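Q: I'm teaching a short session on how sequence maps to structure, and I want students to see two examples side by side rather than one. Could you give me a first protein with its sequence written out and its structure tokens following it? Keep the formatting plain so it prints cleanly on a handout.
A: Of course. Example one:
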Amino acid sequence: MAWWTIRTRKVSFAGSFVAMLCAQALITACAVLLDAGSRSTPAQGGADVVSFVVPFGFICLFVMVFAVGGAFSLSVQQRIREVALLRAVAATPGQVRRLIAYEALVVTGIAAVPGCGLGVLLAGGLRAWLVAQGMIPAAFPLDFGPLSILTALLICWITAESAVWSSGRRASRVRAVQALSEASLPRRRAGSVRTGCGLAVLAGGVWGLAAIYGSGGSDAANSAVAMVMVLMIAVGLLAPWTGKLAGAGLGLLCQALFPVVGQLVRTNLTTGYRRLGAAATPLALTVAFAAVALFVPQMKWHEQQQQDGQRMMADQVVQSTGNGLPATAARTLRDIRGTGAALGTMGTYVTVAVDDDGSQPGSGGIAQAVTGGPLDEVLDLGVVQGTAHELGPRDVALSRDLARRAHVRAGDEVRLAMEDDRTEKVKVAAVYSRSRGFGEAVVPQRLTAGHLSDGQLLQDAVYMRAKPGQGNQLADGLAKLHRAEPSWHVLDRDAYRAEALRRQDASMIATYLLLVVVTVFTSISVVNTLVMTTMERSGEFALLRLIGATRKQVARMMRLETAVIVLAALLVGALVAGAVLSVFSHALTGSARPHLAGITLALILGGAGILALATGVSTTRMALRQRPTTALRGAG
């Protein structure tokens, strides 16, 4: 019976099939790459692939739940009359639930072969892209087993079954005697269990954002980004209420602006609030996710560039094109004519220990180990407590964020756990504010020399300041040194900023890839939902035309309804993204007003709106091509 239902209701299941096909392609690609990464050695780039695929796959899985769940749930809602007929002819609730579950299984099985095939091809394309970007070596083998594909299929099938469970349960509980009467009218009341779960998730998301807003810091900023998923789950659960509120408020606006057609639009929106909420949710997800995915890295780089420009006091920066500069690089560069100050830095990791032996984990982060010399002459760290002119052998400087998390101030003595987990007793000489793109702590290089995991003391960069009026002499001396040591790369301030922009563009490529994949997936979900909800109403359109409405009037009515869906989705998506970005901005910069590029914002909102409007208008035209009598027979 499930196979027969799918064959006779191809239009109703087309959206579910497309959503499942895309879901299987994405999840299979992630599973294949994850399997290949776990089979590869670190030298082949296995760990790099796993670190890339895990967050990528998690986000794809989250979006897949919305897309697949929405498509399957909508297909069940569209066939509520058929379910009612089955109940009227003595089908039990359990049989109805099993029929809907078998339908999800059949759709999953039909989409398995093309979906898994596309997933393997996508995995090969992602591997080639990662190699081209230099993220993994070309020797990385795409070696995977059948278990990864079976796991992807199982994940997609469980997601589909979970999506239809609540819809099937609701449909199967209709009494047989009341089946046809209840199927003829939309359900007027939102489910209490779903509403309660949605309010609970929403309350948790708001509480989480409030806690993050009060804590601040880089860790809090990263946690704020994850809250967009929590809020979108709440939006999905509260979709009927979103449809109710949007239908009531925007329906009145349509009636005021267009008295004749607006009255019909308002009636349709208030009675079909579930349809409105189901259509607006994937579009809101597209807007919210695209805004957060684009603006969060842009805000990070904007803040980092600002702090980098304020921090940079050096005239020249010397870096290595190889593994690093020798430990004596800073001493060598100090001897160049015109040098006023030269300070070498090396990246490391430190933790402010909670106890004396460092057995309990504390707050930590990336640190910069510096050579001796006047620190504030080459780097203005924005010291807010103490002084950082020249660190003593047991003096350290901590960022304001790390000092707040570790509950220390300038002048306190703390135990600092180094790379090898051994601790050193040090004094906090200063607390500074400009840590973005630099590090959470500054420690003497001689203090870290005995704690390196690889035992090699190599400097990442040497910051140099010229003596007053001797900038040209310093530049000439560095050019001469570069000819003698070609691996020593010399950058002035402009070249240093250009190199930072190049690194920014390189780091954003992975973000753009994720955004493109997820946006395409969510856009397909938006199109599927709008097509299914519009084609479902072919009988309604035919009835309107039989009682005297023209095709233009019906098309105008649908344009207004689609505009309401778009406006409601943009408002909800913008509200979710705005709340997350505001909290993220406060945690990152101390200001709740995020730095947003107007062009990017217009592209996100305008692109989502144009996609939905174009889909709604074109689908309405397709539905109106049928003769009213033919459409009524098909709807019946």
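Q: Perfect. Now a second example for contrast.
A: Example two:
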Amino acid sequence: MSRCKINVCIRLLKELYGELPSKVGYYLMTTGPSSLKVISFDTKLTLTQTKKVLWILIQQNIVTFDQSKRSGLEYTIDTDHVLWRLRFPKYIYCAKALYGDAAELLVEELLHEGQGVIGNVVQKVTDKLNEALETAGHTRIQSSLVRDKFSSLVRTHFLQRCPNPVRDAKQRVISLENPAQSETLFVLPLMDVDDVSTSKRKRSVDDSTQPIKKIKTEGSSSVQDDVVYWRINFERFHQHFRDQAIIDAVSKKIDKKASEIVRTMLRLSEVKTDPFAEVTLPLSFTEIFQSLSKDHGMTKLVLDQYLSIISDDSAGFITKVGESGGGMFVVNMLKVLTALCTAHVESVVQERFGSKCLRIFRVLLLKKQIEQKQIEDYAMIPAKEAKEMLYSLLEENFITFTEVSKTVDHAPSRTYYLFNVHLIHVTRMLLEHTYKAAANAMVRREMEVNEHKRLLDKQERVEAIISTLEQDDETQKEEIEQMITPPERVQLEKVKVAVNKLDNCEIQLDDTIFLLETYLAYTMKPPPVKPSKT
């Protein structure tokens, strides 16, 4: 694990959960799986403090545990789950865009709590929605509507069950169950919605201060619901983000109608294709046409022309693999992600070295391995200038070279030097730079807030006082607002602009991290296991 990635994760843990979780998280990241007593001893925390920290991190799906060979529990941290905290606003916005406000609040609640029971989560979200509706003067809604949204999120695999605990002979939890079939994680318990809403109203509004117990109420069958915990299925959200990136790329390269065709193909294949397959399962022309939205008014002739254009494009987004059913087509996931990753790398090369260096870089990508003299000819750059640029790229590890010697002594005069681009190595290097940039943005934002903490606290106090006043009392409001002087208001505006820029910077960096990590996940996956010959 890289130092830059650890640094980002530690800052996220400290910002979201405090000093002690970041301390335990750093220890687990640098040391690996460890037992409770070892963690407590090495971090200089008491056993009680260590237990509380581990409980928080387990609840947030950051730490997992398993029984070691020495019959003790060992705790392991998942750095990816920590890093995904940067992506929380995107998960919430995605749920809202797909399923509405109720789904947005459901996802937000589960992200905040880590894990939750259907009844508790649905009731909290219903109360929030009703409070907002009453403030706006609208009628209240039933919890059954929110539960329907919860069911929709589960059916589309955006939410999943938490693994069940595995207990030993003494009924102690020793690990979490690994289900044999992944579909069992998306099975909703059989419950009557009216019974759920009736039983949940009889519970305390704040269940966070007491353990969740099985409560039998008259006419309720929700006993089973209390032992099923749910959490966010991050992989499903990432799959949606990946598909959206592909659709946007097709829209920019060709047009909107072409992107809608690719969107339809991805939607049809998402439940049939392995998430990390290099190509989707073949889809027939007829199947694609019947699944297209009628709003686009696309005829068979137009669809055939668009599929021909996309499949003939140099990027290779779609490939025709057969003639049955009017033609069989697949989406080349690996090729699309490679094209997107290459575009990011080329953007970095252009920003750091200029357009001429980008020409050299593109020549190397196109020709794979060529000599320096050939690079000068293909890029149409003078020899001296091309040599300087080539070795600048080589110094920064954007390109590499291979020695091909005519003789065994490897004398320079009898050796060919073939320059090339190793895209995977360059992607890893840029990923490290992106981690470092994200950590720097967090440090800068924290410094801005700490430097103007007194002024920000003063603004919060003024806003709190104003919110308690009656709306008609404008004179008193103006007097309180004057507590903040004009120079202070100017300074607050500057701080606000700086913090917003840094927040946007973190979001854009996370977009780059997601794309680079997705490309590496597709290229570095292990090869399929061949069946043994008997």
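Q: What should students look for in example two?
A: Point them to this: The chain has five domains: 3-77, 84-232, 238-331, 352-421, 427-465+485-523. Also worth mentioning: Confidence is low (pLDDT under 50) at residues 192-226, 529-534.
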